[in-house]
Amino acid sequence: MAQHNSHRAAGRAVTPLVSANRAARGLGGAAVLGTVLVGTAFAGTAANATPAAPAAPAAATAAPAAPTEASAAKLTSTQKLRSGDRGNAVEDLQSALNDNGANLAEDGVFGKKTNSAVREYQSEHGLAVDGVVGSKTRASLNGGESIRTSGASASTSSSSSSSSSIVDRARSVIGTRYTWAGNSPSEGFDCSGLTQYAYKAAGISLPHSSSAQGSGGRWISQSEAQAGDLVVYSGHVAIYVGNGRIIDASGSKQQVVERDIWGSPKGFVTYR
């Protein structure tokens, strides 16, 4: 019985090249290496994959927040601030002054520039011009009412009243004994204790130190000096009363005296 020769080796399968290539094209163009389909599963999932949904439209750009008005700096500390002080309370003060037109470094150091800015603010707002931030100046900086007066007449009037108060109080204790570190009529006065006592009559708080009093105010010439200003010596301080005269607690005379300016003062200092 004749056998048909298929010209194929026994057990060898025919590789369906055409079918493979067509399958590759039908599966989205996956690459065919020789007769092996690479990167495509024959389950047909690639060909039948659901098309990707269109990208959602980009979210609308959020509208910028409405600008808010910066709140003025507030002085939360109730401590009295003056030249030489340092810390966060002074930094808050400098910020509040800057909100009112000053141009200070907010470094927490109450130096000459801060002192000048305080005085300028006090002058513009009808406050006692002493360079000290007490309750009234603090309240004004915090938005409280201040007594605004017009021009030079108000400043002159305030200065004249303060000068008279200082001189009158100093004269009231002439003859009181000299006592080192004393600052009251009952215990006596030293030089800076007398000036500290007299300045309280004008609502001005001074430290009990001649050097600190000299550095806390503004240095002026003798021709600019007015009654109530300080005459500063090396290690001594006196109150100028005008016409070349002073009141001071004299260590050499051992009492409070009124006399002509003596020796060679270092200069004049005003707290106006």
Strand line-up of the largest beta sheet:
5-10-6-7-8-9
Report the mean per-residue pLDDT as an integer. Answer: 76
CATH class annotation of one domain: Alpha Beta
Using the coordinates shown, work out and report the CATH topology of one domain.
endopeptidase fold (from Nostoc punctiforme)
- Portion in helices: 25-40%
Total DSSP E strands:
10
- Secondary-structure-based class equals alpha+beta
What would you report as the Rg, rounded to the nearest angstrom? 45 Å
Overall body shape? elongated
Low-confidence stretches: 1-50, 58-72, 145-157
Detail the topology: elements first, then pairings:
Elements: H1 17-26, E1 32-33, E2 36-37, H2 45-48, H3 88-99, H4 112-124, H5 135-141, H6 151-171, E3 183-184, E4 188-189, H7 191-200, H8 210-216, E5 218-220, E6 230-233, E7 236-242, E8 245-250, E9 255-260, E10 267-270
Helix pairs in contact: 6-7
